[in-house]
Amino acid sequence: MLNNILNIQEYKPHLSGEIKCMNCGHKWIGVSPLLERGEIDYLECPNCHFMKGYYNYPIEPKDGEIIFKCPCGGECFTLMVNGARCMQCGCTTELSEVYEEYNA
Questions:
Q1: pLDDT tens sequence across 44-87
Q2: pTM
Q3: Please, what's the largest Cα pairwise distance for the chain?
Q4: Which domains, from first to last, does the chain contain?
C-alpha cells in the first residue's frame, strides 16, 4: 500500500500533469501546490532525485497550436532575441527550427 498519498484539498490551488526531469529526461504525472503569485518550484525527480522536474504543459495547448521542441527533446525554453535556449541541453536554436504542431 502506498504511504505517500496526500489530501489534495489541503494543497489547493494546485497544478497537475506530465512532469519531465531536465537532468535525466524521466517523465511522470504529478501534482504540486501553487506558491505565492502562482509560481511553482522545480520538483524532485523520482528517478535521479535531482530538483529539476518541470511541468511540460502547465496549461495544455489546443490541438493544432504550435509548440516549441528542441532537437534534444526538451520543451522548456528561455526565449532570446537570437533564438530559444533549451533548459534541458543548453543549446540556442533559431525559433524556426524548434516549433512543431501540437496534436493531443
A1: 999 999 998 888 766 666 677 777 778 887 777 888 888 888 88
A2: 0.54
A3: 51
A4: 1-58 (2.20.28), 60-104 (no CATH)
